[in-house]
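Sequence in, structure out. Go.
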Amino acid sequence: MNHRELLLILIFAPLFVPAFAASAAQGGQLLWYDRPADEWMTEALPIGNGRIGAMIFGGVGRERVQFNDKTLWAGSPETRGSYQNFGDVYIDFGGEAGSVEADGYRRELDIENAVAQVSYRSEGVRYTREYLASYPGNVIAMRFNMLILCVICFALVLNAGITLFRVGRYNRENKNV
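Output:
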C-alpha cells in the first residue's frame, strides 16, 4: 500500500464507519440515502473496477454519472499530480433535476456486491436503476427497470449538452410522445 492509498483510506474511513456499523446489524455492508446526491465528495456513490470508476448521483428526472479512467491525471513523472475527472454523463428522462415528483426514493451502494442502485415511484410506476463496474468486462454498466410493461425514454448527454443518443421520444416536460 502506498502513501496515497493510505491517505485516501484515512480521509474516507470516517465517512463510512457509521454506515458499516449500522448495516452490520442488518447483516451486510450497505450505504443508503433518501434523496439524490448534490455533492460529489460527500454524497455521490462510488463504483469502480480498479481502472475505471464512476460516481452515481441518483437524480430522478436527470441522472448524473461522473466517470474517470486511471490514465487521466495531471502532473508528470517528476512531479506528483492528481487524478482528474474524465467527464459527466447525464441520463435525461425528460425532466430537470428535482422537477419530477418521486415517492419512496432510495439510493444505495451494496458494498459486498459492488452494486449501486436507485429506486423510486413516480406517477404510480416503480423505477429501479442499477450500476456496476465490471473488471473482466472493463465496463461500467447501467440497467434501467420498471415494474410495468412500458417504454423507458431517455437521452444520454455528455458533459455540457452533447447528446450521444436518444432512446424513445419525449419532451422536456417529462411526457412521452
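Check: The first strand starts at residue 30 and ends at 33. Confidence is low (pLDDT under 50) at residues 1-25, 170-177.
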